[in-house]
Amino acid sequence: MDRLPHEKGFHVSWDQLHRDARALAWRLQDARPEAGWRAVVAITRGGMAPAMIVARELDIRTVDTISVKSYNHQTQAEPRIIKSPDMEMVGDGSGVLVVDDLVDTGRTLEVVKAAMPKAHIATVYAKPQGRPQVDTFITEVSQDTWIFFPWDMALQYVKPYHGADD
Ligand SMILES: O=P(O)(O)OC[C@H]1O[C@H](OP(=O)(O)OP(=O)(O)O)[C@H](O)[C@@H]1O
Ligand code: HPA
Ligand SMILES: [Mg+2]
């Protein structure tokens, strides 16, 4: 599926991501089961930075990964699991927090939820189409917005305003 063009861009700095991932952790603390969260599973690669911050905030030492690949740049292909977490540890997902940077169409999470149906799904950002797949998130952005993460950006020179038309 071709996802271009996106009307808007939402640019997230490292500082903003850190703040939002912390806010997600605090919300997840309130949503924890009686016995606490057993483990964090990060959806690689975008979920790794938020998962690290959540695990640090909530003092969760068991961290694993699931690798689901579904995009080449902004074009979506069929999502597929490239690497599974330790399923003996994860079980049906009870008490396990699955963390990703965002949900867009929700197709990545569909695949993940099929593998661990009782896991609690958390993303930092959510678009409306994928929102029903998520248990906890922080910020909603519109479907026609592309979110740019700090690891995909670099500081760059811009011409001064008075010379912009030259
Ligand atoms: O809800 P969806 O429409 O499925 O899209 C969301 C997923 O797409 C991106 O990952 P991507 O597959 O690009 O891999 P990456 O995390 O390695 O960048 C993003 O990090 C989410 O995991
Ligand atoms: O808006 C997005 N930004 C970055 N990666 C993504 N993968 C799906 N949607 C997005
Ligand atoms: Mg991803």
From TrEMBL:
Domain of life: Bacteria
Binding sites annotated in the UniProt record for 5-phospho-alpha-D-ribose 1-diphosphate: 45-46, 100-108
Residues that, per the record, bind guanine: 104, 147
A Pfam family it matches: Pribosyltran
Keywords (A to Z) from UniProt: Cell membrane, Glycosyltransferase, Magnesium, Membrane, Metal-binding, Purine salvage, Transferase
All copies of domain Phosphoribosyltransferase, residue ranges: 13-157
Coiled-coil features, chain-numbered ranges: none
Amino-acid positions noted as binding GMP in the UniProt annotation, renumbered to this chain: 104-108, 146-147
Gene3D superfamilies registered for this protein in UniProt: 3.40.50.2020
Annotated xanthine binding sites: 104, 147
SUPFAM superfamilies assigned: PRTase-like
Protein's pathway: Purine metabolism; GMP biosynthesis via salvage pathway; GMP from guanine: step 1/1; Purine metabolism; XMP biosynthesis via salvage pathway; XMP from xanthine: step 1/1
HAMAP family per the UniProt record, alphabetical: XGPRT
Quaternary structure note: Homotetramer.
UniProt function note: Purine salvage pathway enzyme that catalyzes the transfer of the ribosyl-5-phosphate group from 5-phospho-alpha-D-ribose 1-diphosphate (PRPP) to the N9 position of the 6-oxopurines guanine and xanthine to form the corresponding ribonucleotides GMP (guanosine 5'-monophosphate) and XMP (xanthosine 5'-monophosphate), with the release of PPi. To a lesser extent, also acts on hypoxanthine.
Protein family: Belongs to the purine/pyrimidine phosphoribosyltransferase family. XGPT subfamily.
Protein name: Xanthine-guanine phosphoribosyltransferase
